[in-house]
């Protein structure tokens, strides 16, 4: 059996496949090309692994928060594949994936994640991280930098990660009152990390969900913009 993870919620488009104890991986920063890239990525992984899609046991996907269009692409592809092969889904938070990746690389136990949400806001959350295990300390929210809260995180010793820190770093630091120990402003979520998180959860007893239950998380509704369109973030 195999396990697949995909993500398109930010500028990065990524997919990871575990098959026969080995992980196969694709990652490309390609804004606005996710819909064209994801299915070929998946087919490339299956071909490299010598795996048929009917062998997929479950599919993890980046359920958001992130760009509306990007979140919908990953969710739609995951749902379609799930129905096609008859497997379950494991939704994974993009903010959680950022936290686990950064903590693994840097060895920090507390992480403040921020993804640029456009319109002067960030997708925000704070986590305690131990390996692939997470404890939510500051719940996910979308808000202006002036409204973020760190909960019980010791900001001065924390790791800050995500594009929100690149766009709104000064404002976030002003709100928190102190700068985090390390800031990684260009980090993007990766399906390979989501695969690790999902495998850990399933091994601990989490059951993959039916497509009807595995829904994306936007944190805010689409917002109308002048000209009758909508903001895609």
From TrEMBL:
It is found in: Cytoplasm. Keywords: Acyltransferase, Cytoplasm, Transferase, tRNA processing. CDD domains: ASKHA_NBD_TsaB. GO terms for biological process: tRNA threonylcarbamoyladenosine modification. InterPro entries: ATPase_NBD, Gcp-like_dom, T6A_TsaB. It holds the Pfam family TsaD. GO terms for cellular component: cytosol. The keyword Mitochondrion does not apply. Its main location: cytoplasm. This is tRNA threonylcarbamoyladenosine biosynthesis protein TsaB. Belongs to the KAE1 / TsaD family. TsaB subfamily. One of its GO terms (molecular function) is acyltransferase activity. Residues 28-149 form the Gcp-like domain. The lineage of its organism: Bacteria, Pseudomonadati, Pseudomonadota, Gammaproteobacteria, Natronospirales. Transmembrane segments: none annotated.
């Amino acid at each position: 059996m195999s396990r697949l993870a995909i993500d398109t919620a930010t500028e990065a488009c990524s997919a990871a496949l575990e098959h026969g104890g080995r992980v196969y991986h694709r990652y490309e920063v390609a804004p606005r090309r996710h819909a064209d890239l994801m299915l070929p990525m998946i087919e490339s992984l299956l071909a490299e692994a010598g795996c048929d899609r009917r062998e997929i046991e479950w599919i993890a996907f980046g359920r958001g928060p992130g760009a509306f269009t990007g979140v919908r692409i990953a969710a739609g592809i995951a749902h379609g594949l799930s129905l096609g092969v008859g497997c379950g889904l494991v939704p994974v938070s993009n903010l959680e994936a950022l936290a686990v990746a950064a903590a693994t690389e840097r060895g920090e136990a507390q992480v403040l994640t921020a993804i640029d949400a456009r319109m002067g806001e960030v997708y925000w959350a704070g986590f305690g991280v131990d390996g692939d295990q997470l404890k939510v300390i500051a719940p996910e929210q979308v808000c202006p930098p002036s409204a973020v809260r760190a909960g019980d995180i010791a900001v001065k010793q924390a790791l800050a990660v995500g594009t929100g820190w690149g766009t709104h770093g000064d404002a976030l630091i002003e709100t928190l009152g102190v700068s985090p120990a390390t800031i990684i402003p260009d980090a993007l979520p990766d399906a390979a990390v989501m695969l690790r998180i999902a495998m850990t959860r399933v091994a601990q007893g989490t059951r993959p969900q039916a497509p009807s239950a595995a829904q994306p998380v936007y944190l805010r509704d689409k917002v109308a913009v002048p000209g009758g369109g909508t903001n895609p973030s």
